[in-house]
Write a structure and sequence with these properties.
390 residues; alpha/beta; Rossmann fold; Immunoglobulin-like; four-stranded antiparallel beta sheet; 42% helix; 23% strand; globular; binds adenosine-5'-triphosphate; binds magnesium ion
Length: 390
């Protein structure tokens, strides 16, 4: 049985690590064998739990383990051979050694390597719940859309690899002045692509895996969370809850009164914008969330009545399918009819108007210069098609 996997993500400093640790403690208390892991190189999970952690799971309580994934070790494990080849090839072409070293890891990839640990835990089993404290923003999860490309490439290019290389090797030497990668390098790339495809499948399994977006009741933070939410929906990752952390309680009094009012407005915007996804809340405590007692206080506030390991909401509201000739956005609008709906695309924003209600969807940058070419209703959903620029 695959473990229930919960990923917490959100902007820097909003409380991801605290909420992840609090969730894990509550899951363990509920009788589930729980692992909480952090992909953040800063050691904040260890600080929150007040326990030293390592690159392997360490037991930190009854039925509770924690792990601080080492990005460096994962990088070496999945990309070491490619990296060595790339660095040598770059140095051969006159790039300075230090710069070459930095160029050998595409941005964002190191975080992906850390997430591959999730797959190891699925394969080896033994966990009921895996709680993941992700590094800031869901951008990394967006990179996981990459396996769709990788799959294509594996199926078409890899079977030809030997033959292609035999032909290309002398040519590459003569023309590019660079050696082509050897078998070991290609094997590693192949293994990585397969690993990412497998991870992608785990994360898209909505029966067991979901993302929870952590935010504070501040405009900019909420905007970013909305953007992430759209991406996640578009790419088929389930968001089963959003967490609004650090809400001023009534006791803050007059000095923070205006600020509290503003927060309440933002909270209403969150309720509306993310509906029907449930909104969990936690107050701004009078001290840091460090240590068992504070983590449990946070869990008490968040999970009033809800089991932390439950899938709190089960459906996607938007889905994007990328085809060879264009893309289709499917938007669930069960109560709308064709006459109700208006569509307008401005840059990377798609404004959908349904019966006077507007919803702005932030499309992935790749679609920003696509044009909406048509829309139709089917099965309670609006299907919008996009074509690439001519
Ligand atoms: N509800 C809260 N009330 C008071 N302090 C909080 C609350 N939630 C989190 N904190 C504190 O705020 C700080 C940041 O929280 P945390 O480390 O969980 O955020 P993060 O999103 O993981 O940050 P980063 O992006 O740096 O990883 C910590 O000192 C934490 O103890
Ligand atoms: Mg953190």
């Amino acid at each position: 049985m695959a473990p229930r996997t919960i990923l917490y993500t959100g902007k820097g400093g909003v409380g991801k690590t605290s909420v992840a640790a609090a969730t894990a403690r509550r899951c363990a208390a509920d009788g589930l064998r729980t692992l909480v892991l952090s992909t953040d190189p800063a050691h904040s999970l260890a600080d929150a739990l007040e326990r030293p952690l390592g690159a392997e799971p360490v037991q930190v309580g009854e039925r509770l383990w924690a792990q601080q994934v080492s990005a460096q070790a994962e990088l070496e494990r999945h990309w070491g051979t490619v990296r060595a080849w790339l660095a040598a090839a770059l140095v051969e072409r006159g790039v300075e050694r230090i710069t070459a070293g930095e160029l050998t890891v595409p941005p964002g990839l190191d975080e992906l390597f850390s997430l591959l640990v999730i797959r190891d835990h699925h394969d080896t089993g033994g966990w009921d719940v895996v709680v993941v404290d992700c590094a800031p923003t869901g951008e990394t999860l967006r990179l996981l859309a990459f396996p769709d490309v990788a799959r294509w490439w594996l199926e078409r290019i890899f079977p030809q690899q030997g033959r292609l290389l035999d032909v290309a090797r002398p040519l590459a030497r003569a023309v590019l002045d660079i050696g082509l990668p050897g078998e070991a390098v290609l094997d590693e790339v192949g293994a990585l692509a397969r690993g990412l495809i497998a991870l992608n499948e785990i994360l898209r399994d909505r029966e067991v895996c979901s993302v929870r977006l952590v935010m504070t009741p501040d405009r900019m933070v909420i905007d970013e969370a909305r953007r992430t939410f759209t991406y996640l929906n578009l790419y088929g990752f389930l968001t089963d809850a959003v967490v609004v952390n650090r809400v001023f309680p009534e006791e803050v009094g007059a000095y923070f009164g205006a600020w509290r009012d503003r927060q309440q407005e933002h909270l209403r915007a969150v309720e509306e914008g993310f509906s029907p996804v449930p909104v969990l809340r936690a107050p701004y405590f009078d001290e840091e969330v460090v240590g068992e007692a504070m983590l449990d206080r946070l869990a008490d506030a968040l999970f009033t009545g809800a089991a932390p390991a439950a899938v709190l909401h089960a459906s996607l509201s938007e889905e994007l399918e990328l085809g060879r000739d264009g893309a289709t956005l499917r938007l669930r609008l069960p109560f709308a009819s064709r006459e109700d709906v208006g569509l307008q695309k401005v840059g990377s924003e798609l404004v959908v108007t349904v019966d006077g209600h507007r919803r702005t969807l932030l499309l992935p940058p790749a679609l920003s210069d696509y044009r909406a070419s048509g829309a139709r209703f089917e099965d309670g959903a609006l299907h919008v098609s996009f074509l690439p620029p001519a």
